[in-house]
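Hey L., structure's done. Input below.
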Amino acid sequence: MSGKRGFEELIAEGASVPVQGWDFSWLRGRASEERPPWGYARLVADRMARADAALDVDTGGGEVLAEVPRPPRVLLATEAWPPNVEVARRNLRAVGATVLQVAEGGGLPVADAALDLVVSRHPVHTPWDEIARVLRPGGTFLSQQIRGGTMRELSEAMLGPLPPPQRQLPGQAVAAAEAAGLTVLDLREATLRTVFHDVAAVVYFLRKVVWTVPGFTVERYRPQLARLHDRIEADGPFVAHARRFLIEAVRPA
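Output:
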């Protein structure tokens, strides 16, 4: 498949795939991303096994939480995007989690000092004051976050040159955690090679990971997608880099 016909078929394919939840299995064979070295799902499973009451903030479709082998006695999850809420409820039934639909940027519907663990993978916004409020003394917050500048090469392929990132930086997260009264125990960063083998994978990714190119639509970015398709056809897979950091903090006893 090549040329203009190939481009039109590929972007139509990438535009037609459902993007609910946080499952990227459709990209298998079309794109790949290195995993962070710390193994977030394993860390979550370890902390959950030792917790009595826990919360997953911005659970997405509940994909990480659903794999916890020993869930705590009380397990809650919050999600703001309505299409994800029902996906999460289905996925988390087996681990006995209660999924709470919340407003984007709002508070956590949990009583003060009710939890000994809060986790969050790739939160849109980290409500540090709320996390500190709902944690018991000695309770832990563990989060894998998307660092500013992630997938910059792909963003610039659509948007042109961008200034250095000003938000979602590890140092800012540490300062916000400490301002909320938490003590940071661990901070790690990773840069992860991400490879796209065709423009359909790019379209799917940009529809799903909406902060990469805010307001992305196929029609709006058709010229840039066509150039990227031609580049992949001529030079091989398009390579970008995801940036992540892990932060773990505790509410002092």
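The helical segments are 3-16, 40-49, 82-92, 128-134, 152-159, 170-179, 199-208, 222-235. The chain has one domain: 3-250.

-- N.
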